Amino acid sequence: MEVISLWEIQVARTHCRRRIASGMSDSVRAGNLLATLLLVSCCLGLTGCNRKADSLKTLHFAIRSDGPKGMDPVRVSTQYDHVATAQVYDTLLQYKYLARPLDLEPSLLAEMPTIGEDGVTWSFRLKKGVHFCDDECFPAGKGREVVTRDVFYSWKRMADLGNTPKGWWLFKATIAGFDEYRDAQNAAETFNYDAPVEGFREISDHEFQIVLTEPVTRFRWILAMPQTAIVAREAVEKYGREFPHHPVGTGPWIVEDWQPSRHLRLQRNPGYRAEVYPDEASPQDVELGLTRAAGQRLPIADRLEYRMFVQDQPMWLNFLAKRIDYSQVPAEYFNEAYIKRTQRLRASYRDEGITSQPIVLFDFIFTGFNMTDSVVGGYTPEKRALRRAISMALDIEERNDTFYNGINVVYDGMIPPGLAGHPPDGVAPNSPRGPNLERARELLVEAGYPNGEGLQELEYYSGRGSNYPEQAEMMQRQLSRLGIRLKVRLVDFSTLMEIVDNRKAQLFSFAWGSDYPDAENNLALFYGPNRPPSSNHFCYENPQYDRLYEMILTMPPSEERTKIYEQMRDIVLNDMPYVGSMARTRFYIAHKRLKNFKPSETFQNWTKYLDIEEE
Amino acid sequence: MWAYITRRFLFNIPVFLGIVLLVMAALRVHDPVYAYLGKNQTQEDVDQLREKMGLNQSFLVQYTSFLGRTLTLNFDEESWDQPGVSVGSRLTTSIGPTLALTIPALFLTTVISISVGLVSAYFRGQLVDRLLVLVAVLGMCVSFLVYIILGQYFGAFWISREFNIQAFAIDGYESGLINWPYYCLLPVLISVIVGMGYDTRFYRAVMVEESERDYITTARAKGVSRERIMFLHMLKNAMIPIVTRIAISLPFLITGSILLEMYFGIPGMGRTLIMAVNSNDFPVIQAFTAVFAAVYIVTNILTDVAYALVDPRVRLA
Questions:
Q1: What is the interface size between A and B, counted as CB pairs within 8 Å?
Q2: Which of A86, B28, B267, B294 has the most Cβ atoms closer than 10 angstroms to its Cβ?
Q3: Is residue B44 a part of any domain in this protein?
Q4: A166 chain-B contacts, CB cut-off 8 A
């Protein structure tokens, strides 16, 4: 490559000399100068970029945003914060890498927690010998062992409003005395982390108990969420406000260099606990070679580098140029990489050894109604008929096909594919899904608005980004077939949130991504007490539904619980506080050199299982 | 001159205060707290965060407090979007990448455009002139975004794939002169190509107008060569519009190019600002706006001063 460049420069120089000698004007000389500069720069670029690669195994990944904002577990709110935080911090439990449906296993714990006969006392035993990474915050810079107090301290940080925690709802009304502790400490002049919490019981440095207010089933999932990751008090106190940029954890990676909005470089944590690649796998995993690394010490690679992309083109080009190892497939490049009809990777990609993995996300994409609105809200048969008519008039498949290349999964209810309670083939018994214009017109008559007459123009709020304006136009067109007029208001996300939470929107488009693989998380969206600004944006109220929701909170996974999920789903479908639903399918493609690749968006610490081979 | 500068500066204080007032008021039309807290928030959380962010205070208090901090150059306030990072830090880390793009782009665009404008004026009405004008107009007709997308594809990716030459980065940024050509030259060239269309036409018009002045006729009558007239007499006298044009561009050296920075992953001022707007990061938006406004005002005053320096007929009073 260097030979080529030098030759090019020689040619350029000769060319320049000849032209200058021939007496060209100053401007032409300037042009030549520019050309020379360009070539010299190319040469500089070449020398700059072709530095001999070191022998370390480095994973190169992309983040489709300007990246994580910080790595303080209690402030994790976006997927990107989650991605970064999960690499450097550990939680008590973690997801089994290869298991589908998703399941949990101990991470910082020596074994899965045991639940007492009362159902509320959970006993934990921490692994011995797990150390925080070395950091200046510790005496002599040597990371110390993780003990019970670290768990309590880390969780208490979630109660401290001074930390602007984003996930208090995970602990709210869950642990005995924790809510009272939160109220008392935030009311006090200084937040006392040493004050006791009734439900936190320290037995020894490695053993403790947590007493819940009631047998809360979701608690096990919470133990694997990044917000509950374990931090070192010394680090929080030493770095203060800058702690989100000085992560000190027990995770498989430690931060080498972080330039916000540009890149995040991590290196293997040399003190990472003795954890090995799993051997528990499905036959399909074995066939795909995902068990070849079984027993290998984690993390397998030496370095991990994330680069942030706020535009899709550079990310895609970097993937094609093999400068990143895997990529999500942006919608505008889907047809370039896949045959739309079959959703198969094109031959040119397969020939290069590129592999593809579609993942259906735990998404609930819907158009909600404000149930307190005098026109579209309410629970009378007429009001239900109006909402059902709107649902019957809308063609979600057309929307999916037009805006999502037809790759999303359309379904009834609020329970996404892959979770207990999701209807078979996505169709619920009382499916209100359109398009069925004939039935929609009948329903409109029942609602008292034959052919839409007498129905005021409805106000629909949606985000203004991406292709939402076009999606709103499609909705307008589909409803106009019924004589329903829609006034579209496109606003930015914060305004949308504010308007919806203040109950000013009649209809609105939102999406919900499940925090953990249990439909309870989605069913909470319709629980009456979760009214805005909490997650029940619909202001939906149904005492029967609320009673069932309170019941399932304490029920372990079982057929009986799934039946209640279905019952709750059908109650909501009958009341119709929303029109939906859709779950995104994300296509991941990876270069041949990336090994052990089985991505998930529910958990993010899977980078430690990945290997990279030189091509 | 100092009296003039002082007076202009004082006159511009209300302008600065007005800009900050407008921006702060516009930001507060909607409450950012709901989006900031995300899902599962309670009214208590909303109220407490609003208090922590100072949004529960009256607008006047927020306004005067921000002005006070700005006037004392205190940018220590924490960015809402990036916890643990001060606004000042975001300003200082993004100014370098922006200048690495905008200064070379402005320099190259100006030098090339003036040269082409001169050539065009020199061959006024002839084929060369018409061709240059045509190219300039064509250059203006194509969207900046098209140049970026095609430039990135062909300039960085395609060359790399077809010829195995990694001349330019597809995106990314590293500081340091040695890294500049690899990361910045392609976006700079794209910026130059786009800017040249407008500038060439402007400078050509200036040169043509200047070529019709009496002093040019006099110089010709005295037998001065065409080249000397063009590059010595005419260029010198065309400095006022040239300085004006450059001065107008100076504030944009700071604001950067949002599109270029977004596509090429250059963490400059434009990209930082647009990201702050997207995430309702009030402290960053306000600080950036105040800095931009101040730079714009200072640049305007300096432009007037520069007039007096390049044209002895101009007197500042």
A1: 171
A2: A86
A3: no
A4: 37-38
CATH number of the structural domain A363-583: 3.10.105.10
Rounded Cα distance between A502 and B31, Å, is 11
A1, A70, A494 member nearest B84 (Cβ) = A70
What is the three-state SS of A511-536? EEECCCCCCHHHHHHHCHHHCCCCCC
DSSP A303-358: EEEEEE-SSHHHHHHHHHTTSSSEEE--GGGHHHHEETTTTEEPHHHHHTT-EEEE
* Spatial contact of A338 and A587, defined as CB atoms under 8 Å apart: yes
Helix or strand run (H / E) with residue A556: none
Show residues of chain A in contact with B115, CB under 8 Å: 26-27, 30
Rounded Cα distance between A329 and A296, Å, is 30
Residues in chain B: 317
- Quick check: B170 and A321 CB within 8 A? yes
- For residue B112, what is the domain's CATH number? 1.10.3720.10
Q: Place domain A93-240 in its CATH homologous superfamily.
A: Dipeptide-binding Protein; Domain 1 (3.90.76.10)
Asked whether residue B307 is domain-assigned, the answer is no
Which residue of B lies nearest to A40 if distances are taken between CA atoms?
B181
Query: What domain range includes position B248?
Result: 94-266
Which residues 65-94 of B are in CB contact (within 8 Å) with A?
78, 81-85
- The enclosing H or E element of B180 equals helix B180-211
Task: With respect to residue B25, please indicate whether it lies within any of the assigned structural domains.
Answer: no
Q: Which residues of A are less than 8 Å from B267 in CB distance?
A: 259-262
**Chain A nearest C-alpha distance from B45 (Å):** 8
Residue B8, min C-alpha distance to chain A (Å): 39
Q: In terms of CA atoms, which chain B residue is nearest residue A159?
A: B45
Per-residue pLDDT of chain B (317 residues; tens, 9 = 90+): 788 888 888 999 999 999 999 999 999 888 888 777 766 777 788 888 888 888 889 999 999 999 999 989 899 998 988 888 899 999 999 999 999 999 999 999 999 999 998 888 888 889 999 999 898 888 888 889 999 999 999 999 999 888 888 889 999 999 899 999 999 999 999 999 988 888 998 999 998 888 888 988 899 899 888 888 888 888 888 888 888 888 888 888 887 788 999 999 999 999 999 999 888 899 999 999 999 999 989 988 888 888 777 777 776 66
Residue B232, min C-alpha distance to chain A (Å): 13
- Is A245 an interface residue toward B (CB < 8 Å)? yes
Give the burial string for B163-187 (b: 16+ CB within 10 Å, else e): eebbbbbbbbbbeeeebbbbbbbbb
What total number of domains does chain B contain? 1
Mean pLDDT by 10 residues, chain A (615 residues): 35 36 40 49 47 75 89 90 95 96 96 94 97 96 96 97 88 95 94 96 97 94 96 96 93 94 94 94 93 95 95 94 94 91 92 93 95 95 96 95 93 95 93 92 95 94 88 95 94 86 92 93 95 91 96 93 96 94 95 95 95 84
Closest partner residue to A66 (CB to CB) among B118, B149, B275 is B275
Whole-complex ipTM: 0.85
pTM (2 d.p.): 0.86
> Which 480-499 residues of chain A touch chain B by CB within 8 A?
492-498
Q: Which of A537, A520, A495 is nearest to A377 (CA)?
A: A537
With an 8 Å Cβ cutoff, is A535 touching chain B? Answer: yes
Look at residue B103 and tell me if it is in a domain. Answer: yes
The residue count of chain A comes to: 615
